[in-house]
Design a protein that fits this description.
- The chain is of the alpha+beta class and 118 residues long.
- The protein has a single domain (4-115), classed as GMP Synthetase, Chain A, domain 3.
- The chain contains four helices and three strands; from the N terminus they run αββααβα.
- Strand 1 and strand 2 form a beta hairpin.
- Helix 1 (4-22) packs across helix 3 (70-80).
- 18% of the residues are buried.
Amino acid sequence: MSHRPERMAEAIKKEIADLLRNDIKDPRLGFVTITGVEVTRDLSYAKVFVSVMGKEDQRKESIEILQKAAGYFRSEIGRRIKVRHAPELIFKLDVSLDHGTRIMELLHEINNPEDKTP
């Protein structure tokens, strides 16, 4: 079994994070964090999971901006990690952090019922 998809996923995650930090200057883009990347076995597609701080409309707009810039990201990834065919990128909103935060809030309410404000 090949570990190439996992290595490719890590390289893509690192490069997209670097591009977001240093190259993408769109003011409409919210605070975006790359939480994970899944690459198909044939290395043709990569799902890039992102967490975006902000309201729902800001999150949707950030995902749309990222998807529109997917071609740029793909060409840069191909150039930076020196692969002949960089995978097609699909950006997905990762809501697992929101679920974790909500679970922590509920546990806090259960453990500290006196802290509840009416």
